Amino acid sequence: MTGIDHDLVLLFSGIFGVLIIASVIGGILSFGYAGGKPNATINNLNVRIRSWWVMCIICLLAVIVGPIGAIVLFTSMSFFALREFITLIPACRSNHQALLWCFFCFMPVQYVLVGMQWYGLFSVFIPVYVFLFLPARIALAGDTTHFLERTAKIQWAMLVAVFAISHAPALLMLEIPDYQGQNIKLLLFLMIVVQMSDVLQYVFGKLFGKRPIVPKLSPNKTVEGFIGGILASVLLGMSLYWVTPFSPWVAGGMSLAITLMGFIGGLCMSAIKRDSGVKDFGEIIEGHGGMLDRIDSLCFSAPIFFHLTRYFYT
Predict the structure, then answer these.
(1) How close are the terminal C-alpha atoms of the chain, in Å?
(2) Whose CA is closest to 54, among 309, 284, 302?
């Protein structure tokens, strides 16, 4: 599918409409707070809104280009996410050759398989062949210092930053009856619900949050924020059923599954950051941190959504 049809026009009109409202509110708060004096929270809000404008415009351009645009977009996201993950691994010359294979061979091949719609190899290339290749290549370097730890971290980086994320554009390969040529809407449904779940959990947490879910891991994630954000995201997903092959109730069930997995993904990424002693994975997205900070929930939700859709609708 290339170009934008009526449904996509409505979808993007809603997205940019929300951004316009958010920008106006942010501008009013920035101008009116304490006689115009700068406020860190409001400034951070406006920075995040500006970043969302950039991300949504890039997403729109990818949709206009078509499937190739989506694959290029997610390949770029995987590249930056993989780079951020790898920087958490202590530098070691013995890892260099394995990392070159990851960045310049395995990651491009994974997305080529998505573009070729070769599900059979796409689904096993990284978790089987790359998983086995990496320890063999690292062992051949002859350095046994922290061998298991180094190997496992690189394997995990490939699984999370490349394999898991590649399931999002892989939605374009699904052949769903009476839905041919519309799979880009399914990809947008996934991204909107998951990303809005993050935003809504944050908002509900700030407004009503009192009880942290995992205090030692992520004190800002509260029970109230979790419940409010998940329920609101399920309602949002149900309201967007018209861009999917799902009924309203199924769209709600899918939304529940991917938002729960997104929440777990966020917790796991927070655990990795705390273990590594960093606040953010990077600084590539102003106000949001690194690429992994922005797509941590998508890492866990994309594979689940892909396989649920594939199993029940193809």
Answers:
(1) 18
(2) 284
Please give, one letter per residue, the 3-state secondary structure of the chain.
CCCCCHHHHHHHHHHHHHHHHHHHHHHHHHHHHHHHCCCHHHHHHHHHHHHHHHHHHHHHHHHHHCHHHHHHHHHHHHHHHHHHHHHCCCCCHHHHHHHHHHHHHHHHHHHHHHHHCCHHHHCCHHHHHHHHHHHHHHHHCCCCCCHHHHHHHHHHHHHHHHHHHHCCHHHHHCCCCCCCCCHHHHHHHHHHHHHHHHHHHHHHHHHHCCCEEECCCEEEEEHHHHHHHHHHHHHHHHHCHHHCCCCHHHHHHHHHHHHHHHHHHHHHHHHHHHHHCCCCCCCCECCCECHHHHHHHHHHHHHHHHHHHHHHHC
Closest Cα to residue 223, out of 211, 235, 237, 234?
211
**Taking 60 as the threshold, does the pLDDT of residue 107 lie above it?**
yes
Q: Tell whether pTM > 0.70.
A: yes
130-134: long-range pairs with CB below 8 Å, 24+: 130/102, 130/106, 130/155, 130/158, 131/155, 131/158, 131/159, 133/101, 134/98, 134/101, 134/102, 134/158
Residue 1 near residue 182, CB atoms below 8 Å: yes
Q: Is 250 exposed, middle or buried (0-12, 13-18, 19+ CB in 10 A)?
A: middle
Whether 2 shows a pLDDT value over 60: the answer reads: no
